[in-house]
Recover the amino acids of this structure.
């Protein structure tokens, strides 16, 4: 069995939801999960034995530790790579020379570039320290918000909804790639099939798409993805980074759901 | 024969009475030996006698040459209410803010070396929509000739320079309207003037951007009467716009890095500082709207145990700036300097993400499906 740990933040949820489907499609893979309290590197200690501990009280129902020494591969998901910092900036400023959104202040593209360079470098530095440049680790950015999300006022949505989103996100992605090449970790950029234009995920992958009838989605249901996304993302990871294909045919929890098997 | 008057008895001097002198009732601070070289609170408090009391709550605008940056930073760290019209600290670390001209002064105007530059800035801010906006070029990039350092790499198009300048001038206007006092540090009398517009430039073209063309720029060395006229005209512009801010003038102790006057840089520097200091003195003595704070003397003379100069004999030391700001506080009846640790100031403000709790809930749901 190939032991694979999926660690990160609340975005680990999509892979937990897809666990059954992943284990059927990839029978040679054994999965473990761990989410960092407060989504913060500083909330955990990675000890000399290779065990990652939560060093502060998280929710009592969440795992407090994971033994990474026993894993062949580690997929670290949901990483923001400072995109929320860019989003905050773009919620307050227009991009000089770009489309106006009526803001009273603008920032130049060189400033945005310098800002991203600083923030992403800092993020990657923390990332490098966190798992001590462990070459087993592949890092994946958080999914973009769902394309059908109504005017979200949080995080990356400010970037996705910005009229200069293609330019800004390309700059961000280039900066992330440049800084990650200096680390021993792999960088799993968002697969094309899991995006719907710059800065958005296809609507069908959001949690909002799977909510029971009558349950109103919250903002988080548009920024967090469902089991189908978890499966599709893991599938892409396994093919590219683990070099394994799904057994039989590609397996989709959506198809199981559609065939009356219910949610995973 | 002696005259009658010679026979009259002569008044004898009263040998018990003291001779009177115009200096005899002066305070200790009037005497070199009793005050110079002291840095205790009592001595520092008497270095400067402000006409108007300021408190740490009084809204202050900082502007001027590179020494004004030190004053801005020290006053900000000491808890004075320094206005910030184009704050960027919520987004970027201090070093990067400074690299792009943010948070060096009360707005992103770059160094304002001369009284003429400040007069222009005020005029443009109060009439921003029609203000001229000369643009320089370098390697296909465009720079604001009136603040060429704020975008180190320039911008894509001349229109972007003008757009950014308009936004900047609106911010400057807001700061002027909010300020009760303008702490203006005068740095130079030497200046390059744009021939086409008549505008005073902060630097000669060819250093940061633009090309030096003697037909397009001319050198000018301001006289005391010109400096006085510019400062008074600035005050008049503000009053005409209903702005009540007063001036606290200082003179930068940082000597000229170079002179274009044809003289040796040493005497040229002395000329410049002397003209500025004399103009400040004249305004302080005769105009209620102007005060003079002796930062120049504190840093460059022994009056407060200085001089406080380092780096090639040009830059003020941290101790000198601290002494100047302590003096400023004590003179206004405020407690002395209590500079926060630099790291405290550079740290970005903590942020609370309201979605955290919601995200944890999502994770819990996934674990328990």
């Amino acid at each position: 069995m190939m032991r694979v740990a999926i660690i990160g933040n609340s975005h680990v949820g999509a892979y937990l939801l897809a666990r059954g489907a992943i284990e059927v499609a990839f029978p040679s893979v054994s999965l473990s999960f761990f989410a960092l309290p407060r989504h913060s590197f500083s909330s955990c200690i990675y000890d000399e034995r290779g065990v990652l501990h939560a060093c502060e009280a998280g929710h009592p129902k969440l795992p407090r530790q994971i033994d990474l020494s026993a894993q062949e591969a580690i997929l670290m998901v949901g990483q923001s790579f400072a995109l929320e910092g860019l989003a905050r900036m773009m919620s307050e400023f227009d991009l000089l020379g770009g489309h106006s959104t009526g803001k009273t202040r603008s920032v130049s593209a060189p400033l945005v570039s310098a800002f991203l360079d600083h923030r992403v470098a800092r993020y990657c530095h923390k990332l490098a320290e966190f798992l001590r440049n462990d070459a087993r680790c592949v890092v994946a950015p958080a999914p973009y918000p769902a394309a059908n999300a109504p005017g979200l006022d949080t995080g990356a949505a400010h970037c996705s909804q910005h009229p200069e989103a293609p330019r800004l996100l390309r700059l961000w992605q280039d900066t992330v790639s440049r800084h990650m090449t200096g680390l021993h970790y792999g960088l799993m950029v968002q697969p094309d099939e899991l995006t719907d234009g710059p800065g958005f995920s296809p609507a069908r992958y959001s949690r909002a798409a799977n909510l029971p009838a009558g349950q109103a989605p919250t903002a988080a249901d548009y920024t967090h993805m469902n089991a189908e996304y978890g499966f599709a993302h893991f599938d892409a990871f396994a093919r590219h980074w683990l070099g394994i294909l799904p057994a039989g045919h590609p397996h989709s929890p959506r198809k199981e759901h559609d065939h009356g098997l219910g949610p995973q | 024969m002696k005259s009658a008057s010679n026979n009259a008895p002569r008044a004898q001097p009263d040998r018990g009475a003291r001779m009177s002198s115009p200096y005899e009732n002066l305070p200790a601070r009037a005497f070199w030996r009793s005050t110079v070289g002291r840095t205790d609170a009592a001595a520092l408090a008497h270095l400067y006698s402000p006409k108007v009391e300021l408190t740490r709550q009084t809204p202050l605008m900082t502007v001027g040459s590179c020494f004004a940056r030190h004053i801005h930073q020290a006053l900000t760290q000491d808890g004075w209410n320094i206005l910030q019209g184009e704050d960027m600290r919520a987004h970027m670390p201090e070093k990067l803010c400074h690299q792009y001209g943010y948070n060096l002064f009360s707005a992103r105007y770059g160094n304002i070396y001369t009284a003429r530059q400040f007069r222009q800035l005020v005029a443009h801010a109060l009439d921003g929509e029609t203000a001229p906006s000369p643009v320089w070029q370098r390697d296909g990039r465009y720079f604001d000739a009136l603040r060429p350092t704020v975008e180190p790499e320039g911008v894509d198009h001349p229109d972007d320079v003008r757009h950014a300048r308009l936004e900047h001038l609106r911010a400057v206007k807001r700061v002027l309207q909010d300020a009760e006092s303008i702490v203006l540090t005068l740095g130079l009398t030497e200046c390059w003037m744009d021939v086409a517009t008549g505008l005073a430039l902060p630097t000669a073209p060819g250093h940061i951007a633009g090309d030096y063309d003697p037909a397009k720029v001319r050198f000018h060395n301001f006289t005391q009467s010109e400096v006085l006229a510019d400062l008074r005209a600035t005050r008049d512009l503000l009053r005409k716009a209903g702005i009540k801010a007063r001036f606290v003038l200082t003179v930068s102790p940082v000597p000229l890095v170079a002179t274009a006057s044809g003289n040796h840089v040493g005497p040229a520097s002395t000329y410049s500082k002397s003209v500025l200091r004399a103009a400040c003195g004249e305004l302080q003595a005769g105009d209620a709207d102007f005060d003079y704070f002796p930062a120049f003397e504190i840093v460059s003379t022994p009056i407060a145990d200085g001089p406080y100069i380092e780096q090639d004999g040009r830059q003020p030391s941290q101790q000198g700036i601290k002494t100047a700001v302590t003096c400023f506080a004590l003179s206004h009846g405020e407690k002395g300097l209590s500079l926060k640790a630099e790291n405290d100031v550079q740290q970005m403000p903590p942020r609370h993400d309201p979605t955290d709790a919601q995200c944890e809930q999502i994770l819990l749901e996934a674990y328990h499906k």
